[in-house]
Design a protein that fits this description.
DNA binding; 66% helix; mainly alpha; three-stranded antiparallel β-sheet; single chain
Length: 234
């Protein structure tokens, strides 16, 4: 099953990367639905790419869980539950296509299982550099004068720094998943006329516990931060 469409390469971008973005966009916006087979000769013509380029694009999207191939079906779109949302590109495409409130709820559950534990580890393992990064995020938050855009950036910097301060290589990588969703949620709050509750105090409480190497305090303070955020932006 195929769908028609147009494709205009962006100046300065390689054909390969632009084609990956275009095909991913079509998958996420439903142009190609779950289970749809892609007719490769038609796609080559629509996207104005060679067979070699299209094969490489399919390979990339296959590794990210969006596509699969078989002798019987050719290249087809995999079910949504098999898409690799932990891949930063896939997450970017998902957010760009729009997400529902239950998506943010799922990510909040993920954050509640990761960020308090990361804060507790940070209280054990933080370095002077880690504290400096956390303090810098707090200073930006305090100096934002309730400028929403600056608050969003400071919040993203804080949560990135806290995950890195855990000095656990897996928790540190989770900022690639958590922070883009956090930014998207905050931007959607702004776009709908929502307001931000002053976040400085609850963030500062986490940093203070980390500074004092208070493992339990860091865990509970981060949990409280997430609960405050959830109540403010349901």
């Amino acid at each position: 099953m195929s769908r028609s469409g147009t494709h205009t390469p962006h100046p300065g971008h390689g054909v390969h990367s632009v084609t990956v973005e275009e095909l991913a966009k079509r998958i996420f916006n439903g142009t190609y639905g779950e289970g749809d087979s892609l007719v490769m000769p038609e796609l080559m013509k629509e996207l104005d790419v060679s067979q070699t380029v299209l094969r490489e694009v399919v390979r990339v999207l296959t590794t990210k869980g969006l596509l699969d191939t078989s002798q019987q079906r050719g290249t087809f779109v995999r079910p949504r539950e098999e898409w690799n949302l932990l891949d930063s590109d896939v997450l970017h495409w998902k957010l760009a296509a729009g997400v529902s409130s239950d998506f943010f709820a799922d990510v909040l559950e993920l954050r509640r299982s990761i960020e308090p534990a990361a804060a507790a580890l940070a209280a054990e393992r933080r370095t002077d550099h880690d504290l400096a990064e956390l303090d810098a995020a707090l200073r930006t938050m305090a100096a934002s004068d309730n400028d929403p855009a600056r608050l969003v950036r400071a919040d993203a910097s804080f949560h990135t720094a806290m995950l890195i301060a855990s000095n656990n290589r897996f928790y540190a990588q989770m900022h690639r998943v958590i922070v883009p969703v956090l930014v998207q949620r905050d931007q959607e709050v702004l776009s709908t006329g929502g307001e931000f509750v002053d976040p400085h105090a609850v963030h500062a409480a986490v940093v203070e516990a980390v500074r004092n190497r208070d493992v339990d305090g860091a865990y509970m303070s981060m949990l409280e931060l997430l609960d405050v955020s959830a109540r403010a932006h349901p």
